Amino acid sequence: MINPVFFDAAVFASLLVLLSLGLTLTYLTTKVPNFAHASFATLGVYMTLVASRVWEVNPYLALPVAFLLSGVVAVALYTFILKPLAKRGATDAIQMIATLAFDMVLIAGLNILADYLTETFRVKSREFTLRSFDLEFMDLPMIVTVAPIAVAIIGIALFLMLKKTKFGIAVRASTENPDLSGTVGINVNAVYTIAWMIAGGLAGVAGALMALWFLGDPNLGPLLIPSIFAASIAGGFTNIFGAVAGGLLVGLAEVLGTRFLAGELGSWLIAYRPLIPLIIIAVTLMFAPRGITGVNWSKIRSKIWR
Amino acid sequence: MAIEPAAIFIIDMAAIFSIYAIINLSLNLEFGYGGIPNFGKVLAVGAGAFVIASLPGRIIAQIAGIEGDYIRENLTVVAQVNAWLLDNPVPGFAIFAVGVAIAALVGGALGVATSYPALRLRGDYLAITLLAFGESIRIIGNNFPPLVGGTLGVQVPDPLSFVPDELRFPTASLVLIIMVVMVYIYCEKTIRSPLGRSLRAMRDNEMAAESLGKDVGRVRMKTIMVASAIAAIAGALYAVYVGSTIAIAYDRASWTFWPFLMILIGGLANNKGVLVGTLLFVALRKTIIFFKDSFEGFVPFDVVWLDLLLLGGILLAVLLFRPQGVIVEKPTHTLGRPPTAKGIKRVFNLLFR
């Protein structure tokens, strides 16, 4: 029997990889950290709830719906709020506050949805678990294998898309230099919109997967957001592949690190788990502001080995 | 003498307005005038509340020789402390005044700690770091019971115990309003001082300010320190006003996001606008809560969420359609002319225009 803490670690780390991939992608386009990103995932959580409890179908069918819904919401944030603000030359701080306000609207909407589900369908819609709705695969809950595999597939697909396709080149060009890309005929706005769609969609998928393992609640977003930012910042915030490394690092550090330290020092430590992403953010920004991928590892290696 | 519900409504609103007004004035100093996005405002507010919740009660228990653990037997200890306060109003008040002063000191010290990243990071990275700082206060308070009782919270002794019951809240509101007036005057004086002008210069063009010999780092540090001290005072007053403190109440939304919302609605870099924004916000929230019961049955959800939805929507609309807020920032105040020059000009106008 495998210790369930490894399942926690696997699912949580995959989730963070997906979320920080999306956050990094949107940061590359608009250069504004999006504080509403975690609530896109909460939308996905509710899609799984609706699929399994209201429609009573296979919960994995919620994945495409969650992708579309969260993607559309993300595009709405970009098109109707961030783009007009950026066009008017609003400062970074104002745009960040706008994403916070959008998050507040989303959270209110999710809470209303939760109340509605409880009222209408008599479904537990706060602090609910859907583990019993998951399928089994090799005597294990299916999510434990599906989540890492899905993340690997999505990561490789994104890599191939960015490196090998014409669209990927357009994305990289327009994040690097929007003006120049515009003059050579790339529709920068369309590229950014699609990037937001993908980012929001990935967050939705992450949420839909997460619902099958962790407790779901409308107010998950504010709890998750420090971990997502820690993962993205540890990954450098401007590097898609750094986001993968950062997600793994923060996910494993949070779950396994807390468990290990609690075993060594006492169980009182578990409650301080939310401090881990905050410490990771502070340490990264102070000592390696360009993230793990920005550190010149070969230089450090040559110094140590000589 | 019983107080009318409408009067209670207004008295309570005045108190909440005052507390938020103090926080918002301090945030306006940082963000409106100085351009420092302090997304960790909750840190100073929470620190102030924690100091007042854990310190004066213990001191009085020591003086009065009250037995019992302050956290584990909190209810009985605080009841005895309140009985002591009833008999000794003046020393009690003095101890609480010292408590508020210590809260301000702790807030200022945390402000200096906050300014460490604020001097080194810019824009979005700074905002994220400060947000992380602010988060930590709730987590620590929630898990470290000796501070404010962890998940159970603690009662805060009431320095107004000697006031008759029905006058307690009106008196508290009056004290709070006096505090707002003082902070308002302080902030107005500050922004008209050379420091205030350096702040705006730093916000609008840091390099130009530096080239004219302004020590931008020092100005930034001073501003955050003073603003955090003021916010800590507000946190302490809030804890005394509501009579209890629990760590999870010091969350990002209530003490960081809402202050930003209020100053943005009222108009940045504008102390009058801050008061207007605060009043609008507090009135709207209180009204929604007041009429909450009459909504029930009409909508299939808790009305609390309507309030969040509305506030978020209003802020987005303000940002998109009226970015300068209700009241627009005025140009820098300059020193008035000496009276003789004014007189000469008046005579000149009288003769030649």
Description:
The complex is a heterodimer of chains A (306) and B (353). The mean pLDDT of chain A is 86. Helices cover 74% and strands 1% of the residues of chain A. In chain A, strands 1-2 form a two-stranded antiparallel sheet. Chain A has helices spanning 4-30, 37-54, 62-87, 92-121, 142-164, 166-176, 178-183, 188-210, 220-234, 240-265, 275-287, 297-305; strands at residues 136-137, 140-141. In chain A, helix 1 (4-30) packs parallel to helix 5 (142-164), helix 3 packs antiparallel against helix 4 (92-121) and helix 6 (166-176) crosses helix 8. Chain A is an all-alpha fold and 306 residues long. Chain B is mostly helical and 353 residues long. Chain B has one domain (5-290, 323-352). Helices cover 75% and strands 1% of the residues of chain B. Chain B has helices at 5-33, 41-54, 56-64, 74-87, 89-120, 123-143, 145-148, 165-192, 194-204, 206-211, 216-242, 252-266, 271-290, 292-295, 304-321, 339-352; strands at residues 154-155, 244-245. A two-stranded antiparallel ribbon of chain B has the order 1-2. The radius of gyration of chain B is 22 Å and the shape is globular. The mean pLDDT of chain B is 86. Classes of the chains: A mainly alpha (306), B mainly alpha (353). The interface between A and B is large, with 46 and 45 residues.
